Amino acid sequence: MTQMALVIDLNKCVGCHACATNCKSWNTGGQFGPLTDTNPYGKEPLGVWFNRVQTYEVGKFPHTDVVYFPKSCMHCKNPPCVEVCPTAASYKRTEDGVVLVNYDDCIGCKYCSWACPYGCREFDTFDGVMKKCTLCADRIYNENLPPDERKPACVLACPAKARAFGDIDDPASEAARWIAEEKGFKALPEAGTDPANHYLPKRKAKVMLDRDMLTQHAQRPVDMERKSASAGDVVSEDVAQT
Ligand code: SF4
Ligand code: SF4
Ligand code: SF4
Fold first, then answer.
1. In this structure, are 135 and 217 located in the same domain?
2. Which of 87, 130, 178, 214 has a 20 to 30 A CA-CA distance from 74?
3. Closest ligand 2 atom to 110 CA
4. 212: pLDDT confidence band, cut at 50, 70 and 90?
5. 110 pocket-lining for ligand 2 (C-beta < 6 Å)
6. Among 88-102, 119-133, 227-241, which stretch is predicted with the lowest mean pLDDT?
């Protein structure tokens, strides 16, 4: 079965909010349906955000770290939001696993937002209907777009290349390879929703050391003067104090 999803690398995410901003930009003016926001491009935008970047400080001082956690609908394989919807407005597509809301059938009861354990549903007070991330369903198969732009707006915007998109049930997809190679995990597995979106954990950075750079560092003039001083040569006051 095909299950489209996002994979977000928490090790690469720098919390810049470009994904959230481009998501809002596309979904305000995109073809799936406009977002009716107050002051959407102003200093204090109000309204629906399909993608929100949360920030956490982890660890104990002085060994603390900051984790940026972008969050949008996880397109769960076992979505409680669909189960509780009294009008069947919420549904999961069989062809690609994307969870969507049919706005025409939504009565705005908000049951789905109570059922979602991730807080990923967004009520549009102006339209009186529930909205949420569509995985840019109006972009990913859109033949009016160049093939390399048929991806969710958040993925296209990420400057850190921290987001992958694809069929996580296809081992050859970039998304599935990221999960396999870097121990991708699901958020809140105990909720039993089997989220399709995955996260890659924070991990030690792979730093490539350049041997020439190391040698240059060892031969800094200040180091060489120190060496001379320890050998009994005269050394300037400045250098001696360093
Ligand atoms: S994350 Fe929430 S809204 Fe999205 S499919 Fe899962 S339960 Fe439904
Ligand atoms: S708010 Fe709309 S989508 Fe959510 S449960 Fe009610 S009818 Fe279904
Ligand atoms: S655009 Fe990329 S780096 Fe910036 S907050 Fe989103 S996921 Fe993180």
1. no
2. 87
3. 1
4. confident
5. yes
6. 227-241
Lowest mean pLDDT among 64-73, 75-84, 139-148, 231-240: 231-240
Co-location of 134 and 191 in the same domain: yes
Answer yes or no: do 222 and 174 share one domain. no
* Same structural domain, 133 and 218: no
Q: Is 73 in the pocket of ligand 2 (CB under 6 A)?
A: no
Q: Which of 24-28, 139-143, 153-157 has the lowest mean pLDDT?
A: 24-28
| Same domain as 115, residue 54 | yes
> Residue whose CA is closest, atom 2 of ligand 3?
158
Q: How far is the CA of 165 from the centre of ligand 1 (A)?
A: 17
Q: What is the whole-number distance in angstroms between the Cα of residue 185 and the centre of ligand 1?
A: 16
Specify the range with the lowest mean pLDDT, choosing from 48-52, 199-203, 229-233: 229-233
For atom 1 of ligand 3, which residue has the closest CA? 158
How many residues make up the chain in this entry? 242
Beta carbon of 136 within 6 Å of any ligand 2 atom: no
Give the C-alpha separation, 176 to 168, whole Å. 5
C-beta 46 within 6 A of ligand 2? no
- The Cα–Cα gap between 222 and 226 comes to 6
Total number of domains in the chain: 2
Our mutation pick for probing the ligand 2 site, out of 83, 92, 110, counting the most ligand atoms within 8 A of Cβ, is 110
Mean pLDDT, the chain, as a whole number? 88
Is there a single domain that holds both residue 117 and residue 230? no
